[in-house]
Amino acid sequence: MTTWHADTSLLTAYSGGTIDDARAYSLEAHILACETCRTALATTADRGRLDRMWAEIAEAVDVPRPDIVERTLLRLGVREHVARLLTATPSLRLSWFAAEAITLGFAVLSADAASGGRREDLALLLFLMVAALLPVAGVAAAYGPGMDPTYEVGLSAPMRSFRLLLIRAAAVLGASAVLAGVAALALPQIDWTAAAWLLPSLGLTLATLALSTYVRPLVAAGAVSFVWIFLSVVATFHRDDRLIVFRGGGQIAFLLIIAASALVLARRREAFEGGAEE
Amino acid sequence: MATDPRHATSDGELLQAVGAGDRGALRALYERHTPWLVLRLSRRCADPGVVEEVVQDTFLAVWNGARRYRGQGDVAAWIWGIGIRRLIDRLRKRSPAPAPVEEWGPASRSAEEEVLLGVEYGNLGAALNRLSPELRAVMQATVLDGLTTREAARLLGIPQGTVKTRLMRARAELREALA
Predict the structure, then answer these.
(1) Looking at this predicted complex, what is its ipTM?
(2) What are the tens digits of pLDDT across the range A183-212?
(3) Min CA distance, B105 vs chain A (Å)?
(4) Which residue, of A4, A119, B40, B65, has the fewest CB within 10 Å?
(5) What kind of fold does domain B98-179 have according to CATH?
(6) CATH for B6-97, among 3.40.50.150, 3.90.79.10, 1.10.1740.10, 3.40.50.720?
(7) pTM of the full predicted structure?
(8) Which B residues in the span 69-108 are in contact with A, Cβ-Cβ below 8 Å?
(9) Nearest Cβ partner of A22 from B27, B43, B129?
(10) How far is CA B21 from CA B28, B59, B62, in A?
């Protein structure tokens, strides 16, 4: 290190802007290599300005880096606050998707195993029942007290809880549909049955939402699931056609359920603004 | 010089700690290097708001890129390299603002002062100061700040060709003055 150091008058002239360029150049070149002169120069700095700038740096440093799901959403053009809300949804975490995938995988496996046998349509019924039920569980876990870590935040947020609910429900429904769709490709044969769960899943999900304007989301989801499973079990006694729930009549019934649920939701949406729990 | 405990750790060690996610180390680096960085940037950009943004950009870049520092050369020089390039980026984003060249250069100096400076700093300092502000700005950007012709052109808001011709003229004038 050099033994030459800038004297006080030179430093004062530099920090005060009254120095000529030639001397400024030599000081600037020196300062990059001399800690002593840097320290001496630091005493002339404006403390308030330094703290103000640091506050902004600290804030930027503290912002957590978005995780992979959130980054993907942002890249897809989802707005920042919506992406954050979606990634805070319990049933939109990777662990949840993994659980869904495993469930569907077992249903598909059993369908494959039963392929060609007497119980073929029984296994297919199981798959359809599970595929339609997954988004119900997902939506039930997506909001409400005790499930949603941002529930209290959501109640006081400027965004309406109802809108948040719809965004999340749509995301859960979409994600489940993609998973079930992929799983359906692995079914022993691909015909109309591979997509027969689509309307039922939409109908069951909307029915759950509509019902949760009266009772807690978990109770609503439980009730809907119970009725659905009960219907499916009853269908197994129908020896000629075990998939009867998924045929024309059933699909039309689900269209009616969708319409009725949407109507209930539209009329009773106020129930989501903090009043759905007991 | 190691009497102040804050200076017991070297810049290199601090930078390593920053790379490991130590916010306190970033603060320490900030305290050591912001004062000169602000002053040096302010001599190249007249807008204090832009200077503050550049300082913030720079330390965020240090935070995110500390692991890329390979331990060669002074940390201060590394920080300056980031800072001056962030300044160029910021200036480029703003529409072709007039380069602050005219605001530089000390006001007219008395003949007496000229003589005193000549005595104190010899021929080179006087010769440098006698260069026109435009030539000096180009010398400063390329020789002192280590910018490429292209970066200097962006910083000063002039074409690359002009940077080259001015640099050549500045060298010729200095050679003549020192001959």
Answers:
(1) 0.76
(2) 888 777 777 777 788 888 888 888 888 888
(3) 7
(4) A4
(5) Arc Repressor Mutant, subunit A (1.10.10)
(6) 1.10.1740.10
(7) 0.54
(8) 74, 76-77, 80, 104-106
(9) B129
(10) 13, 13, 11
